[in-house]
Amino acid sequence: MEAEEAKESLYPSLIPTEFEIRNGLITDIYFSRAEGVLSAENMDQRVVMEIYATSFPENYNFAAACGVYDALRILEGKPVNVRAVDEGEVFFTSSDIYEPIVQIEGKYRDFVEYESVLLGSLKKTSGISTRAARMRIAAGDKEIINFGLRSCHPSFSLVADYASYIGGVDGLSNIASAKRMGLKAKGTMPHALMQMYGDPVKAWEAFQRTYPEVPLSILGDTFYDPQTEAIMALEKFGKNLYSVRIDSPSSRRGDFKKIAKEVRHALDIRGGEHVKIVLSGGLDEYDINNLREVGDVFGIGTSIVEAPIIDYKQKIVWIEGERTLVEKVGGYGGKKHVYRKWTEGGPEDVVAVERFKTPDLKELKKLELAGYEPLLKSYIIDGKIVRDFEHPQKLRERVLKTLERLGGYRELERKVESPVLKKII
């Protein structure tokens, strides 16, 4: 028994349980101590706390919120009201004002210990969904498959795949993730399969015999250069060859675009115009944009899992009592309302901030009459979730429609000013 206990202590589970998260055990100690101070001092005022981003990664014109549903699940059952943007919603920020994506109203002591897990649920996933959206824009109508499983801890893989999928990738290689999204997992074959046979053609034949129902997509750069292996595959399988994947160009010190063009040419002059070219190996959105003319499908992995985070903050902006408006250094006090109207040039957003003590909400009605719609929606009232969560496929469809309407904000480089307008009411 002692040996078993010692073994368990040496190899603890690194996957948090729902009990630990919902009971405030997954938190930074300073939040737990803050709750202790407020409890000891009997401070129990209602507050409004907002989660927002004051800046984006370099060259980003927009961000796509992800992790909102997880944040809502964490707060479910607590005596709070929560307004939030929809999962996957595109939002903006500027030096003048920000757009909160989650707004919590309630007694601070009731949710003080959740700040760490709320931000943790939002930062990385929003970074992944945003980068996936940028890759979707770069790829145009070409297919993108997420091969990122090997680039993250298994406990995070489902979350990363979900974020990339609602952000715009078409397929997932992870079997478990694809199943949860209602998809069929996509992928070709590993280099190790060809190594096991010592002959790429024999490996491809074995694959076709074993999985005749799967379109034959060969990995064409194991023993010879991609052009040679592509020709070998076409000569062997002809019309039954669906695609050729070229992987890891950096290890061959070549010009990936030139290599892909050579493969395309070699296939086409032999009657292989039907064969798709799949490109993978350390690609990001800029690579995809550069290779779009020579690639039909893009496999992306590390770059999407290691996407830069959307650096959210979580700050109190209103406290019940005389000192109602609260500003922290670098922040903006007052409860925010975010509205959007779509124009031919893209979105036009307004952030309305409630005045000190005497908010005049008639101004919000004027915005609605002018065609603006609220982005922050009531998701939790008195601890109960009151709005349905959408299926990942529906979320992805909505994100794709939004991306099509972004106009100049679709640029991969920062070339336009934020559409956010500050309006005090």
Distance between the termini: 67 Å
Strand residues, percent = 15-25%
Instruction: List the uncertain runs.
Output: none
Please tell me the overall pLDDT: 88
The strand count comes to 18
Shape label = elongated
Q: How would you describe this protein?
A:
Helices cover 36% and strands 20% of the residues. It is an alpha/beta fold and 425 residues long. A 6-stranded antiparallel beta sheet has the order 12-1-5-3-16-17, with helices on one face. A 6-stranded parallel beta sheet has the order 7-6-11-10-9-8. Helix 6 (154-167) packs across helix 15. The longest helix has 25 residues, at 115-139. The chain is elongated, with a radius of gyration of 25 Å. The mean pLDDT is 88.
What are the main properties of this structure?
15 helices; 425 residues; TIM Barrel; six-stranded antiparallel sheet; nicotinate phosphoribosyltransferase; alpha/beta; six-stranded parallel sheet; 18 strands
Give a brief rundown of this model:
This protein has 425 residues and is of the alpha/beta class. The protein is built from 15 helices and 18 strands.
Helix-strand layout with pairing:
Elements: H1 2-10, H2 18-22, H3 29-40, E1 46-53, E2 63-64, H4 68-75, E3 80-84, E4 90-91, E5 102-107, H5 115-139, E6 143-146, H6 154-167, E7 171-172, H7 175-180, H8 191-197, H9 200-210, E8 216-219, H10 226-237, E9 241-246, H11 256-268, E10 276-280, H12 285-291, E11 297-300, H13 302-305, E12 312-319, E13 336-343, E14 346-353, H14 362-369, E15 373-374, E16 377-381, E17 384-385, H15 392-404, E18 420-424
Parallel strand pairs: 6-7, 6-11, 8-9, 9-10, 10-11, 14-18
Antiparallel strand pairs: 1-5, 1-12, 2-4, 3-5, 3-16, 13-14, 13-15, 16-17
Helix pairs in contact: 4-5, 5-6, 5-12, 6-15, 8-9, 10-11
